[in-house]
Amino acid sequence: MTVAALIVAAGRGHRAGGAEPKQWQHIAGRPVIEHTLERFAQHPRIDRIMVVLHHDDMDLLKSTDCEITQGGASRDASVRNGLKALAANPPDKVLIHDVARPAVSTEVIDRVLDALQSHPAAAPALPISDALWHGANGRVTASCARDGLYRAQTPQGFHFDAILEAHHANDAPAADDVEVARRAGLEVAIVDGDERNLKITQPEDFARAADALKGSHMTDIRMGNGYDVHAFEPGSEVILCGVPIAHTAQLKGHSDADVAMHAITDALYGAIAEGDIGRHFPPSDPQWKGAASAVFLSHAAELVRARGFDIGNIDCTIVCELPKIGPHAAAMQANLAKIIDIEPTRISVKATTSERLGFTGRQEGIAAMATAALYKS
Ligand code: MG
User: Fold this and answer.
1) Cα(258) to centroid of ligand 1, in Å?
2) Which DSSP letter does residue 287 get?
3) Per-chain residues with Cβ under 5 A from ion ligand 1
4) Is the pTM of the predicted complex or chain greater than 0.70?
5) 46-60 tens-digit pLDDT
6) What CA–CA distances, in Å, run from 363 to 240, 266, 285?
7) How remote is the CA of residue 262 from the centroid of ligand 1, in Å?
8) CB under 8 Å to 92, separation ≥6 — which residues?
């Protein structure tokens, strides 16, 4: 058995606002149409996808895994063109779906497909729970019973030959393909819809659709790394991750020379491709002389959040023979957590020696490296 998805994307969608049709506007970083197509492309029971596009949009689709055909003057005409294009190599079943429902779930698609095993047509819907009124001129003119009323969604599924014939026979405008199917005498099963499977219609629906996509595969993950070295000079303490530690030397630098915090800060800048500390706080600028490195770290964390990312975790390794880091690691994690406002359990500070090799081994200075993971959902 073969199943095709027919995605209707030829409309202009003026009610949704914006400079371009709603299917080409972005939510969660990508055009609406890409989210919708991905839902079907990733579904194991869908064999092929036919997309119906407006004639002005034929070159816009970047995805190459779909077949494309041109739409008509109305939604009905567009669906008919899509069915005709599929008929060259007809599938057994077809799911007809509005491109403006990008958050359709695997479960809804499964329920429609399951129902098609025993019905010629099936579609998801939600029972109406709000009271229903008639109104005119801003006044309620009548109440109406809501019993047995549903809000229809897509994908609407059909045995392919049956819906093809129904569309050929249909000569009146229809609200959806279920109406076309019923005119042809097909029995349509109702399966459970999903509130998240909303149709983008009004401008505010873009944000609702983006919310509905949250927690799904849409998470945007970024990684950054940072590395820094500071040399020792005469002194009596070093500052690492903001924690002063008594030592036989201090670290040399323009700021407080907190080598570990610098590595972490650069990892955050790196994850959002925003250069490094030197770009944001030039060493040539006297105002940063002796600065507490917390200023740099909190700036990087603010920039990360301004880009819409959350910090998933940070891992930092300090390379030195002395001082011993272990006894101070918890205080370092707590201090970093406070500066960048995440839970201490998302921060790791650990240390290693370099077996007395190289500059750290000869105790000429301390090196630190850090990794940061960011996510946007
Ligand atoms: Mg540095």
Assistant:
1) 7
2) G
3) 228, 262
4) no
5) 999 999 999 998 988
6) 16, 24, 30
7) 5
8) 1, 2, 3, 159, 160
